[in-house]
Amino acid sequence: MTHDSPPLSHSLLAGARALAQVQAGWSLTEALAEVPDELRPSAQALTFYAMRHWGRAIGLRSQLVQRVPPNETVYALIGLSLCLLDVAMEAEQNAPEAGAPLYTAHTLVDQSVQATQWQQSMMAFKGLVNAVLRRFQRERPTLVAALSDDQQARWNHQGWWVQALQKAYPEDWQRILTVDNTHPPLTLRVNTRRVTRQVVQDALTEKGLACSATGAAGLVLDVPRPIASLPGYAQGWWSVQDAGAQLAAPLLEVRDGMRVLDACAAPGGKAAHLLELADIELTALDVEPGRLARVEQNFERLGLRREGVTLVAADASRTQDWWDGKPFDAVLADVPCTASGIVRRHPDIRWLRRSKDIRKTVQLQREILDALWGVVAPGGKLLLVTCSIFPEEGEMLAKWFLARHTQAERLAAPGQLLPSEPSELDAAGHDGFFYALFSRRV
Length: 442
Description:
By secondary structure, the protein is an alpha/beta fold. The chain has 3 domains: 149 residues, Orthogonal Bundle (N-utilizing Substance Protein B Homolog, Chain A), CATH 1.10.940.10; 226 residues, Rossmann fold, CATH 3.40.50; 57 residues, Sun protein, domain 3 (Alpha-Beta Plaits, 2-Layer Sandwich), CATH 3.30.70. The chain contains 17 helices and 11 strands. The strands form 2 sheets. A 7-stranded mixed β-sheet has the order 7-6-5-8-9-11-10, with helices on both faces. Strand 2 and strand 3 form a beta hairpin. Helix 5 runs antiparallel to helix 6 and helix 6 crosses helix 7. The longest helix has 22 residues. It is globular, with a radius of gyration of 24 Å. The N and C termini lie far apart (65 Å).
């Protein structure tokens, strides 16, 4: 900890507040946005680690706290501190976990107890926090052993999620869950309208940042860095986009002059990619007006032409509210989903979702696809994309669509991509996505 770093107790308290908000249904992104600027980087590091180990923390905490304290932040603080104390004690005996925030056990206990003193409503729980953490120090082997049959603690996903993957992917479920708990790589998509991939790679190398090419226009950094500090950010040389997501725009094979719809456009990565590939007439649609501002900002930074680009705030399933009656040659339907394929980037998702959410999102997806099929021109294409690994939001959805729309013909597309780590064959690895491409018979 440098002299400019905030006290660990302050970061622990900020992190605990954010985790308590997640437990109340907030996304971690929303919760961290409420954290003061000076504490946000450290609170983010702590909470991301905690969310990737929250199943184990819950299991340990339930053994150590018999009566749940009426203060949600205190309860979250105990969970967060147990995560960190667990890895600290493990590191004292074995090699430390890669990417784990490491502190000494003494420091963690001291600073966790100190964190209760920064909020009036928490002061009465100082003794509880101290007693729980010291008991964990004494009894860790026994407490950990008691979790041996607890799937949630073993895999750090809710039990129903583990069971769903076991059913869908009997050969791959353990690998998927393991990948979910890793740190994702920082992958860039080069804006070939402005610069070549080699120019960006050379600029990164000159700054001492090693990277590898992936896909048609991607670069994956060996070690993630703050985005705005990378060469070419201000010049619009690249966007941050997972290697799996970079497959979307090229599948539509857009050409100059085509009329194209991105039906669920925010934050704009795929829409920008479409504009980088050809001079198209693009309509970028999103149901939330505030999110379209982010799309516009991305277009501006990337220096993409704005002639023929229309941003529309509307519900994709209500075509009567936004469609002018002129068919589209290509439609990108990156429909809302459970986001089960991107949990290594958003580790809170696995704790926010409920099993019933799959059924709800599938119904929404069907409504959107039904509506969008009506705006596809004869001979045109519709690309279904979800960042999910649940078959209900992937192959089962595609088969439902094909059976429902007799004019649809399914074309070659990747289908289900399961999350993967970087390897010799794949420099970036990628998140979990599903792709199905359809053409409308003339």
